[in-house]
What does this fold into?
Amino acid sequence: MNVTVKNEKLNQWIREVADLCQPDDIYICNGSKEEYDFMMEKMIKSGSAVPLKKRPNSFHFRSDPSDVARVEDRTYISTTSQDDAGPTNNWLAPDELKKTMLDFYKGCMKGRTMYVIPFSMGPIGSPISKIGVEISDSPYVVVNMHIMTRVSDKVMGLLDGGADFIPCLHSIGAPLAEGQEDVQWPCAPIENKYISHFPEDNLIWSYGSGYGGNALLGKKCLALRIASAMARREGWMAEHMLILRLTDPEGKQYHIAAAFPSACGKTNLAMMQPSVPGWKCECIGDDIAWMKTGPDGRLYAINPENGFFGVAPGTSYGTNPMAMDSIKENVIFTNCAVTDDSDVWWEGMDGDAPAHAIDWKGNDWTPESGTDAAHPNARFTAPAAQCPVICEDWEKPGGVPIDIFIFGGRRSTLVPLVSEAYNWDHGVFIGATAGSETTAANIGSVGNFRRDPFAMTPFCGYNMGDYFKHWFDMGNKLGDKAPRCFYVNWFRKSEDGKFLWPGFSDNSRVLKWMCERVSGKVGADETPIGLVPKDGDLDTNGLEVSAKDMKEIMSIDTDGWKAEIPDIEQHFAKFGDRLPERLTKQLEEFRKRLG
It folds into this structure.
């Protein structure tokens, strides 16, 4: 080992893992620029990292075609009782799962270096932050963790002082025999991949994948699956939510946390440039929110991440100019196309497609190839501090006070542009019944509707019926200081299949109405599904949407909503006696309002 580890629990764990995995060397990471450069140099020499001349200090990687995304069907929540994992999670008994994985871990790091990565989720020392330590045999994981979390000597200092940590063990599952040549992207076959969470032990074990949320264990594994279970036990919230600050022309600030499933515009909203004059939007986080009650009884949020792990295809100056400005330098790109002038390219990027490029599989590509140049789940890893609209308070240790929760999904019919919940319990009901039509970013057939409560289905680390109850418990604790809850749908279509709402910067008009509801400046009309803007209260100045389309986008089809009820009943029935009575009551009230 290159440094002495004073934390006895960590020291013992490092030795146990080294005995089990048998690496050639052990390296303790410190998060320095020199370390990052050293890791990149190593990967350039091995051929896995390609420097990009057009973007300073930026590099491109190509994964194995079998290792391109999160593997939900190989992701497990392992609790003593299967009921505690619930119907939305894959479950295996802890003893059985640990035995299987220990067999895989035996000697799995032979021929490789074992990296020990101490990291903080959230600002170092914040009362809302948590410390993790990831052990991995992948230098690609080290450099990505540098960007996505806070890897630092300061974290090791806290650990040396006796701070507790969440152990995260990761291996790509590709030991090297003596003299064996390494491949560009080592990983195990799909049937040997396991992304396992043991919430009762605050423990994460991952094996066989080197990609994204399967391997960067601070991200979905710790920040949502383990953190959600910890949050329930400790009385706080870990949510799949962006966080933004909206400031009105008078300088009043509003903080909004929003939960959307995949492909519903989270990153776009987090970095939105408002089309409403005088309003300003700043990004605090684009993916995850950790929230605790402050001394004043309000809910305060931090973004536990340090970077953006964004989907590249579809990102452009047209859809998200602030994201494009965030990825000019110091970025890791994965599974994009590389152009002949040493830049990256993907479908949906501004300008014409290159006449020739090397695609994400390493093959020659031209526009006539008939295949995608970039993988649909190609990614960029970029420091959040590089975002031109990052909020000055994004690293405030105490967090920012949340005024508004937004839920939403992609629905081409039925769901209006915006509605507000009548109260907290109704807000939990709209969050618990949220859903979205699937796209290429989701697993399953395109266009199918699937319920995704609070956008947490793949990320809740325990029984979702208990998760719903936790939302009610938080409402009890917050009382009249609870954030107001809204539901949005940017994706309603006309009968001929055209989007009725322009979206992007014009979504600020909807957020403005929400803020004016919170400040008491505008009223609302009551409908069976919630409160909607009164005529003229939604700012449409300069908006190129006809009165007919605006009427359609806000229309409420009572019969259509009645037809939703059997599906909601079926959805709730999955949770059996874990479903809170208060949700059943909300469904009954909804039924009555529909008449």
